[in-house]
């Protein structure tokens, strides 16, 4: 059972993608797909890609 919160899943996915592919090349859709969360979950936790990068 995966007990990570949506926020933690997003942060983990974004960190991996930003490291591997670069921040500019990584889109929100890619992050949500890797995190297996809805786009609305991302925007409920982060107001923008910039805020996600800063987290």
UniProtKB/TrEMBL annotation:
Pfam families: TetR_N (PF00440). InterPro entries: Homeodomain-like_sf, HTH_TetR. GO terms for molecular function: DNA binding. SUPFAM superfamilies: Homeodomain-like. Keywords: DNA-binding. Residues 4-55 form the HTH tetR-type domain. The keyword DNA-binding applies. It comes from the Bacteria. The keyword DNA-binding applies. Residues 27-46 bind DNA. This is TetR/AcrR family transcriptional regulator. The lineage of its organism: Bacteria, Pseudomonadati, Pseudomonadota, Gammaproteobacteria, Moraxellales.
């Amino acid at each position: 059972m995966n007990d990570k919160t949506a926020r933690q899943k997003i942060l983990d996915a974004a960190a991996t993608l930003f490291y591997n592919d670069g921040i500019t090349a990584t889109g929100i859709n890619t992050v949500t797909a890797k995190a297996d969360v809805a786009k609305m979950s991302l925007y409920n936790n982060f107001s923008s890609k910039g805020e996600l990068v800063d987290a």
